[in-house]
Amino acid sequence: MLIVISITVNGQQLVSATLKGTVTKQQISAFFGTNPFIRNGAKYYKVAYTSPDAKGNPDTLSGLLVVPDDLKFTYPKLIYQHGTSDCKKCIPSSYGVNGGEEGQLGLLFAGLGYVSILPDYVGMGEGRGFQTYVHDATTVSATKDMLAACESWTTQNGVFTNDQLFITGYSQGGYASMSFHKYMENTNGPMSVTAAAHLSGPYSLSGVMRDLILGDVAYNYPAYVPNTILGFNEVYGIFNDLSEFFKPEYVAEIQKYYSGSLSLTNLNAKLVQMLISNTGASVGGRLIREDIIIDIKNNPNHKINQILKENDVYDWKPVTPTRIFYCKADDQVPYLNSIVAKDTMTANGATNLVVTDVSPNSNHGACVTPALTSTVFFFLSFQKITTSADDYSSDTYLNIFPNPASELVNVSTTDFEGTSIFISDISGRKLYAQSANSTNNTIDVSGLQPGIYYLSLQNKNGHIQTQKLVVQR
């Protein structure tokens, strides 16, 4: 089914929304390990909308929109920013074909009761040119214009949303989520974002990432260097030919990737092999011409240093509830990005910020699950889903006391018939479940180890309320 709408919103235009598929509540739950918090099925659409390209000219971009299939509720909106893509079409809106696997996270969030918006980014999907990788301004323009396009579509198609907006993303998406969060608070004020969680992103391009590339430490992901430089070249016009920036022995392989005949994974494998053969170690900076490396190291005003600084996204003060989740053993995006962001934001006066190592021994790939699980529970503690006949707030629907608790905790709710009570640890593992037997329930938590847990209530309509529970002795 193709739905074409032509509505202009602040210069942005929704071009089309094409239904790509539907999934049931049971299917979504099965995708994610029989998640007890999945409340509904979902429909997912490929959205096309107008937005600027790398040079600021009008273009048509794409993304994935996933909406809950139960339309009697009013839902919050959630933006998920995807991680580094292996190819131009390896993006959320390609969900259902090879390369679009990350779009499945849109199904997860829609199943949890969010209208989920997943931009493909400038130069990706339907966008022309090469992707503007980790570029702040085009990350913002692609995201805000897709948000406006999706708001147009939901208004016209009976999908009701409230004023809540959640923002998250992983890896490149962590960078993108922080970029857009910063824009929203600075432009529209802290109340424009309900909560945000940024996951394992390269927030410090001019510091942590620059030091990694210019150093002599072996790095098994050197393809991020040309990916970043090629993206910036789309915006800033750093060079006209690859040989002006990269050493000649690497130009042919980088050109294949740029033209789309080689995936990022395959480029990386070739560059690792070539760097070890040519220089003795896989050091990303050794792809770059020696004269340019010397200039970048010695001249703070070098164009590359200025570009990296311009595209840092951590030096600001978030006011809305914010989490930064990372893993110390991350082998792709150094965890120091998160530490630098924490220290800088705290120095800027941020008070509602928590930065957590969610799995110290996990590498970049293994960090995805604990980071996303922590994000899900963090967001559920703020989420509001209502109908016109069921307009209750989280304050009256769920109350936990005492909190912190040592042995017994009282759970008070205004609606108990058909309601279930769950306690989960921060990794999402369900430790306790029972049916509520009255508006006031007493639970024995003496068997739980001291720590932080999440207590959730799910009523007969599938509405979930979650609060953090602290157990201490």
Short note summarizing the structure:
Helix content is 32%, strand content 25%.
Structure description:
The chain has about 475 residues and is α/β, with parallel strands linked by helices. The protein is about 30% helix and about 25% strand. The chain is built from 13 helices and 18 strands. It has helices spanning about 25-30, 105-110, 135-155, 170-190, 205-215, 225-235, 250-260, 265-280, 290-300, 305-310, 335-345, 370-380, 395; strands spanning about 1-5, 5-10, 10-25, 40-50, 60-70, 75-80, 115-120, 160-170, 195-200, 320-325, 355, 400, 410, 420-425, 430-435, 440-445, 450-460, 465-470. The strands form three sheets. Strands 1, 2, 3, 4, 5, 6, 7, 8, 9, 10 and 11 form an eleven-stranded mixed beta sheet that branches. The chain has a four-stranded antiparallel beta sheet with strand order 15-14-17-18, with helices on one face. It has a three-stranded antiparallel beta sheet with strand order 12-13-16. A hairpin with a 5-residue loop joins β17 (about 450-460) and β18. α5 packs across α10 (about 305-310). The N and C termini lie far apart (about 60 Å). The model is unreliable at about 1-10 and about 390-395 (pLDDT under 50).
